[in-house]
Amino acid sequence: MIVLLIIAIVIAALFVLSLLIYWFNLDTKLVKLLEKPMNRHYDKIKRDKRL
Predict the structure, then answer these.
(1) CB neighbours of 20 closer than 8 A, spacing ≥ 6?
(2) CA angle, 36 then 40 then 45, to 5°
(3) How far is 48 from 51, CA to CA, in rounded Å?
(4) pTM for the structure as a whole
(5) CA triplet 12, 18, 22: central angle to 5 degrees?
(6) 8 A C-beta contact, residue 18 and residue 12
(7) DSSP secondary structure string, the chain?
(8) Could you read off the pLDDT of 1-51 as tens digits, one per residue?
(9) Alpha-carbon torsion (10, 16, 20, 26), positive or negative
(10) CA distances from 51 to 35, 47, 48 (A)
């Protein structure tokens, strides 16, 4: 019985967390934060072919 209660609480907490991520658009904000360092890394990569 206790195990089912703990599982239900964990599932409810994950659901609320996913709603907060959706509501505040946090996934897009995280990608925007990581865009500059990723572009710097990509620009440093040596290319075999020129475009």
Answers:
(1) 26
(2) 150
(3) 10
(4) 0.64
(5) 145
(6) no
(7) -HHHHHHHHHHHHHHHHHHHHHHTTHHHHHHHHHHHHHHHHHHHSPPSS--
(8) 999 999 999 999 999 999 999 999 999 999 999 999 999 999 999 888 877
(9) positive
(10) 22, 9, 10
For residue 30, what are its two tokens? Answer: 């995280």
28: amino acid identity, one letter: T
Assigned token pair, 22 = 């959706």
Residues 21, 27 contacting (CB under 8 angstroms): yes
